[in-house]
Each structure stands twice: as structure tokens, then as C-alpha cells.
Description:
The complex is a heterodimer of chains A (about 425) and B (about 650).
Chain A: H1 2-21, H2 24-29, H3 41-52, H4 67-76, H5 80-115, H6 130-134, H7 136-145, H8 148-155, H9 160-176, H10 179-193, H11 200-210, H12 220-248, H13 253-263, H14 274-279, H15 286-299, H16 301-307, H17 312-326, H18 332-339, H19 355-379, H20 384-418, E1 432-434
Chain B: H1 2-43, H2 54-79, E1 91-101, E2 107-117, H3 136-144, E3 147-156, H4 161-164, E4 174-181, H5 188-203, E5 215-216, E6 236-241, H6 248-256, H7 272-275, E7 280-291, E8 299-311, E9 322-324, H8 325-329, E10 342-348, E11 358-361, E12 367-372, E13 375-383, E14 399-402, E15 414-421, E16 427-436, E17 443-451, E18 455-466, E19 469-470, E20 475-479, E21 488-496, E22 500-510, E23 526-528, E24 532-538, H9 540-543, E25 565-571, E26 575-577, H10 587-610, E27 613-615, H11 622-634
Helix pairs in contact in B: 1-2
Amino acid sequence: MAAPLTLLLIVAVTIRAVLFRSSWAELISERVEVVSPLNAWKRVVEGLALLDLGVSPYSGDVFHETPFMIYLFHFVVDYAEIVFMIADGITAVALYLSIQTYNKNVFRKQKYALESDRYPADCLELLRSPKEMFYIPLKVAMFYLLNPFTILSCVAKSTCGLNNAIIALFILCTLKGSALLSGILLALATYQSIYPLTLFAPALLFFLQRLYIPVNLRRSSFWFFTLQYAFIYVGSLVVITGLSFFLLGSWDFIPSVYGFIFSVPDLTPNIGLFWYFFAEMFEHFRLFFICVFQINVFFYTIPLSIKLKEHPVFLIFMQIAIISIFKSYPTVGDVALYMAFLPAWSHLYRFLRNIFLVSCVLLACSALFPVLWHLWIYAGSANSNFYYAITLLFNFGQILLVSDYFYAYLRREHHLTHGLYLKKKDGTEATLVLK
Amino acid sequence: MAAHRCGLSLVFILIFSSLACHSSCDSLENANEDTEEKQSVSDTPREVNSDGSIAAEDLNERRGRSTDAELDRRDGTRTSEALTPAAAARDEFQEELVIRPLHSGDIYASFQFRTLWDTDFLQEGQKVSHYRLFPKSLGQVLSKFSVRELHISFTQGFWRTMQWGQPFIPSPPGAELWVWFHDTVSDVDGNWKELTNVLSGIFCASLNFIDLTNTVQPSASFKPLGLGNATDHRFLRYATLPREIVCTENLTPWKKLLPCGSKAGLAVLLKSEKLFHSSFHSQAVHIRPVCQDEQCTSKAWELRQTLNVVFDLYTAGQGKKEWSLFKMFSRTLTEACPLATSSKVYVDITDNPEGELFELSPATPLLSQAVVLGDRRTYSVFDLTRAETFGQLRSLNLLLRWKGDGGEMLRPLLHAERYVAGFGLQTGEIHTVIYNNHPYRAFPVLLMDSVPWYLQLYIHTLTVTSKSRDNKPSYIHYQPAKDRHRPHLLEMLIQLPPHSMTEVTVQFERALLKWTEYTPDPNHGFYVGSSVVSALVPSMVAMNTNFTQDQPLFSSFVPVKEESSYFVRVYTEPLLVNLPTPDFSMPYNVICLTCTVVAVGYGSFYNLLTRTFQVDEPSLPLAKRLANLIRRIRGVPLLT
């Protein structure tokens, strides 16, 4: 399996290297779909330039990276292209290894269940065979590395690629069962862009499941492990934040990074829902709606964790997808991360209801983004509503996609317990409905 | 008896008090006379007249003084003993008009009114309440806000340096205000906010639109022009409103600050219907502390009101190269302001020593030479305090008739221009081009740019090139903007090579604003104030090494130090930048649509989270259900 992965990596790096050298690189790095005020490379360079001038990068409103990013790029700014390619490679390999581990777990569980005869007889065709599972990790890596969204993001040198690498490493450490590394990496991901905070719940659920600790609020072992993991997480978060303070000698980065994420002062268009909504918002409702929209991102964690407490990896996927749809400054790099997981759920394909529609919507939107942007900004023959309409449709498509996968996952689980071909009382074929 | 005694004592008191009043008035008058005497002694070498008619001038001066004394006496009787020494201080008023014919055929008229008063507004525990020539409204502003120096200008039109040369007092289009506060002020921003609002009322201008988002604190470009070498730029505030439109309503309050108003003196020429029918109009007020005398033993406040106007050859002069005071201002001069100690009209005749270029009538024997902006200029002087200036018609109507073509103007040594490059509404580039036209001297300039926050500057894209070579600024002061709080401030010191063009470029990104933050005409664009180029420019006098002019040989070997360079401030054009706009007509639609999409997401998750899968059992037809209802009542088994 190492050979195809190596080949894939080589192909991916070649594509990126060619694009970096082409005249497209500059064009791509200006695209609002690919870079946001949070992660644009131009702003990283600006931050470094400000530092050279002896001005704090956070004294202005251009730079919103964390102090670690300045520190990192202070040394490797000349090798940025290599760093971003390596980051993409790391993400792909980490996802590859995680999905491999996950598939092994799934297969083992399936084997136990099969041996203990827990599946209904007509469900055999729902079970997964090692043969079809064999190429899934490679497909996941390929979906990440060759996804045009990832390539664009990498060529634009969007720091989103680095955040993705941290999240992928976090997933890998979690699935490999290392609570310490997982906690530290989760803290790092949170430090980078606050939203991965919601991944705490699936990681905790995964560890509990792995250690056979039931989720029971009255059990001391549950509380013991939860507190242990929370301590690792919060502890590393405090250490990282403290280190950043010592790097810069001030707390300026807190409002400039996290305040910026939460209060959405920059209304530069992007593929998300925030920019036009808050550009057109009535001033006295602004705070209310900011709170509503931000709570919306975090809120799904609780019900999803309850519903999917047996399936923490799928929960991770759901959480990443929800973050990338509802976060304040989304870019296509965020979309690419959760899309990389889609091959891992290829067995859900038969239950997806409108995958054709959704793929058409997403493809059409991706093509229309630059067109309508050009019409609005350069040609002047369209206005902001055109671009806004496309962002709405794109998000609508993403929501459909994610909820469709959620539906399919739940339905498959239902069939695995109740049998695939359900009968009505009168013996005719029954249809399943949500009630 | 008692009543009689009472009446007697009353009479006594009356007599006594009237006596006391008389004596105090006398002593005041004496004191005034004393200071006047001293002043006239120090003032004796006043003007070198070519015909030596000092007697007439003396006479005139005495007349002016006597009116002054009368005025003083009236004031004195009114305020009696309450007079403090500071209020009794002397103030004086001077007015002058400089007319410079421009090579383009246009004409440049520059008025200056100067009031000097040796009082101290900023002294603790002492309230200045007695005003004579100095406008009370401004005096109160100075003392209330602890202002050390105040410069405000309103300009309509753009000064074309390449056609007109340097102005006497440069100003950017729109309104400009810069203030040095006294270093005892603790809340500078608060004072600044209040001061702009007060000035907005005084000058009927929209200065109240000056807030933190367009105020900067330049670190080097704006040094105090008056006494005191304040260097702490925390006490300096600078703001421009490039969009401000200047018109009659700003001129009227400005004229009211003059001691004679627009009733007498040079100010009678200031008629708005003519002043605003011009290609450039700029009025300004400069207040600063200056030295009272040469030894600088005491401080005086100087109020300088200036008004510069350029009349266009074609719109105002009907294409004829013939100018007169009446043609320019539709008024002629008949008298000086009685309160003025000096009132003069200067006409620049440097390019016309023999009268071959234009004809000036009436001719005046008085000539004056001055080094202005590094150039030695010769002026014909008309002294309005002298009766013979007005001739037999009792009115002075200067007439300037051009004989030939204007000829070539000496190019200004320093010149700057600015424009926005790039297309589309996403990014752009500001180009500032600075020209050094000096043939062999390089000199440094200070460039100051204040860019509003909605244009996000990228300082790493800053390039400075002269003669297609990178020219690294030796000093850069950059303060990045804070969204909705503070503009960008970029100041740098650039060395301009001789005879070169230096281009400064910096890229910016246009922000999308909230829909309420746009001006009522958002597609007109947003103004970015002029950038300011300040420099010590090598003097043209020092540049003159060709020795063709007859100068004494002893004067031309080593250039004179004082004249070797002079300070110039050049303002570039303001920029007009378009920003992307949202659709202003549909806030409700956007709120509804976005919320719908969020609700679709929420709804579908909610659906999947709260419901479970169940086999769909079709419900019975209506007839069967009704039958079942009856069967249940009857106790019969139900239908299925």
C-alpha cells in the first residue's frame, strides 16, 4: 500500500509545484473563495513586514494569524511553498492512516457482531468486505490531495492547509488511542481557529469507547477519564496561549484573532453565510444575530454527541462539516477537509437520497463563483446579490450533503438492527419513515 | 434733620466717586500713551521708501494712533477698575494683499490679515475677558481647549503647482485642520472632539465629521510653526475632510473675525459672488504663539487669516489678459481699515522689471524686495494708509494689462501628484509621484499619507523607485488602521535624486462596508485625503550660478546660508476610490434568505436527531375509520 500512496504524493506535489510556478498562482491567491482575511498569505507577509518595521502585527486590522504562525513563518517564509506542500502531504498521510485504523476497528467489531450473530439475516449485504475496504484509505488520501479545492488552497498558500494538517494529526492520534497527543493537538487546533473546540466531544467519546468505559454520569471511571482528558486539553491550551504571550509580550492577539473570528468585523465576501448577512444587518440586531450564528456552530455538538455516541468517528466528520459550513470565515480548504472523508462512507451510498442533485449543485456553484465575482467586481454588470445567491446555494448544497450522509448513516444503523427488508403487518414491503 | 444729613453724604459720595473715576481714566490713558511712545520708537525704521516720504506716513500713523487712543478711552471708561494688566495689553492689526500675475494668464490674489496680541490665554487662574481686535470666539476656544497652535483651511479647487508655481500658503482641497494642544492637556482626544465641534459651529463647516477614523498624529510632517519646540506628537491632531465643499456660508463667519469686518480696508474686496467664481479659492485661519520682540522676552498670539484666490483667464477674465481690482472683485479700494497699523497692496513685478511684459497702473514709486519661497521677488507697494495712493478719484483700482505672451515659467523645484491604479473593485494601487526639478541638488522630502481604514494597505508592497532604481526610505513611520477606529498613517523620509521622478506605490484592498456605513451616494466613491510632501528645498537664489544677472561680485561667490533652502509643503490631489457596494434595497430579503438556509440546516439536523425510523403503516380510509368509531361504541370488533 505504500507504493500507491507514494505515487499519489508525487503526483500531488507535482501538480502543486507546476501551479506554483505558473502565472495562475497569483490569481488564485487573490480569490476570495480560497483565502479569507483569517488565512490569506498576503496578510502573513504583511504581519512579518510589520514586525520588521517594529510595529506590532496586531496593532492593525490586517493580520489575524496566531503568534505561532508568525514564529513559524519568521523562519520558513522563504520556503513557504514547500511548507504548504508538506502540510498537505501530512494531512493526506494522517487521514490515510486514520482511516486505515478506523477500518480495522470497524471490521473487527463487525466480525465480533457477526460471530455473536447480532445482525439480522438479510443484512449480510450491508456488511463491509475487506476487499472493498482495502482501497478506502488511499481514496481518502486521494480525495484530499487531488481535490481541486485543496490544490487551490495550497497554491494560494492559505494557512487553512496548516490548520487542516493539525486537525488530521489530531484525528490520527485520537484513533491511534494516544490521549495525551490528541489533547495537545486538539488544543493547538483550537488555538489556531477556536472552532475545533467542538471536536472535544467526539474525541472523548472515542477514548471512552476504546477503554470500554460506559457513558454514565454516575460512574466515577467516566468522570475520571473525562477530567483527565479535559485537563490535558485545557492544560495544553493554557500553555500554548501562555507561550504566545511570552513570544509577543502582549495579549493583543486575543482580540485580534479570536475577537475577529467571533465579532465578524471584516465583511469581505467569502463562501460563507456571514458576510452579506452582516453587511445588510440592522445595527441594533447585529449583536443578537452574531450570537445566534455563533451559537449555531457550537450548538449541534450536544445533540449530535448524544445521537452518535456509539460512532465517534462519524461524529468527527459531522462536526468538521458543520464547522466548515457555519464558521465565520470559511474557505474551500475547510470544505476539502470534510470532503476527504466521503470515501470512508462509501458504503452509505445506497441510502443517499439526493447525492446527484447535491453534486450538481456543488459543481455548478464552484464554476459560478468566479464567474459571478467577475461580473460584480470587474465587469460591473452584476451586483452583490448575484454572488450572494451563489454562496447561499453552495451552503444549501453542503447542508443537503451533510444531512444526507447523516440520514444514510442512521438508516444503515437502523437496518443493521432491524433487518434490511422490512415488512408491514400485512406482509407487504414496508417503507421506512422518520417519526 | 436725618434726611438732610443723608442727602449731604450722598452728594459727597457722588463727587468723590466721580473724581476717583476721572483720575483712574487719566492714569490708564497715560499708560497707553507710554506704551505707544515706546512702540513708535522701536518702529521707526519701518519702510525704506524710495522717495523718502516719511513725513506723510508719520502723519498717518499718528492719526491711526489717535483713533486707537479714543477707542481705548471708551473701553476704559466702560470697564473702569476691573481692568487687569493683561487686558490692557496692546494688540495690533495688519492687512495686506499680494497680487501675482501668473504665466498662464490667470491671476493670483493672496490676502493676509494679521492680528497680534501679547496676552496669554493659557495662564492658569486668569481669564481673558477683554477683547479688542482679537476675535473673542477664537480666544475663548484657545483658552478652553488649551490650544497651543491651530491651523484650519477651507479650499475649493486644486492648486496647480506646475502652472502656477508655489502658493504662499499651501492647502489641500477640502477642509484641513491641525492643532497642537498644550502639553498640560490630559484628554487630548476628548478636547479634539469638542474643538472640532465648536469650530464646526464657528465656521459653519462640517468639521464635526472629524472623528477618530480620520484623525492622525503625524510624527514628523507637522511641526509647530510658532514658539516652543514641542516634539511630542501625542499632542498633535491632524485631519482632513477632502469632500468638504467651501462656499459663502464659510466665508461670512471668516470675514466676521476681521476687526473691520467687510466694511473697510482690503476686506471690502471679499465679495462671495466673485470669489467663488474662480478656479481656486482657499481661506485659512492660523493661530500660533510668536515672539513679542526680537529678544523674545514675552509671548504674543498671532492670528493670521489668509485668503488665496486664483481667477481664471477664461471664466473670470473673458479671455482678455487684462486684470483690474474691479474686474476681479467688482469693488475698488477706497480706504484702509482704520484699525490697521499697516495696510498694503503688493504687486509682483519680478518678471517685469522694465514694464515689457505687462503694464501696471497707477504706477507706484514704492518698491519692495523679499525672498519668497527661495526666490528673490520684487513688488510694487501701494500703501493704503497714505492718501495719495488713492489719487484724485479717492479710489484705487489697480490695472494690469499684459503686453505679450507670458513666457516660460521656471518649473517649481518640487512637485507631486497621485493617482489610483488598477481595475475592478477588489484591489488597487496608490501611486504617488514626486518630482525633483533641481538640476544638480538632491534633497530629502517627508511624505505623509493618511488613508482611511476601508482601504487596507499592504505595507509589504510598498516600493519607492527613482530613476528606475530602488530608493529605500531612510525613515518609515507606519501605523496600520483599525477597522472603524483609526486610519492608516504612513510617513517616510525619501531622498530625491537631482532632476528625477520618484514613484511611491503601495497596494490596497477595498473593504465591503456595512450598508449603513456608505455615504448617500455610494457609487460616487470615497475620498482619500491629499498626501503631504514637506521638504526643505534648495533655494533658487542659491541655484543661480550662471552670473548673467548683474549682481555685485562679492555677493555671489558663496551662496548665502539663510537663503540656501526654504520650507515647502506640497499637497497632492485627493483620491476618489470606488468600493464594492451591497444592494441597499434588500436588507430584509437578505436576512430572510440567509436565515432560511440556516433554518434548513437546523431543521434537517433537528429532524434526524429527534425522530427515529419507523415502518410506515398507511392509515385506514376515512369511511373505515368512521365505521370503526361506530363499532367501538357498539363494542363490535374493529375493521382493519
